[in-house]
Write a structure and sequence with these properties.
Structural class: alpha+beta
Shape: elongated
Strand content: 15-25%
Number of helices: 5
Amino acid sequence: MQTLDNTDRTILELLQQDAKLNIKEIAARLNMTKTPVYERIKRLENRGVISKYVAVVNRKKVGPSVLVFLSGSLEVKKFDQIQEFYDAVGKIPEIMECYLMGGENDFLLKVIVRDLDAYHSFYSKQISTLPHVGQIRSSFVLNEVKHSTVLPF
């Protein structure tokens, strides 16, 4: 775990809200000069606290889409078999997120497809062929109540 002081946390909060803020704007909000802010951001990047900068695209604005969560079980006896599952999941662009779970389910996938017909095709051709997968359950999102990429500090 990385040790972050209050200034680091504030910088991270500002960048999570708007990654396009420049050093001058961040420094002004922190009542600091540009050089120490620049050095802190570079340190956070070098330590992997800031892993990348991205544009968050509103999926509803770029066309129709259906958000589906799939949960299920894995039939594995060796770590290599879990890795085969990970590798296969990593190659499928419709899978936005994948989590190995403890408890009732072994994995949770977040999937985005164009519509229900696309989901049927995706499920038949991609999900049903994933290695070492047992039972799978699909849950379709009816209303996205909250979606955030901001980690709280």
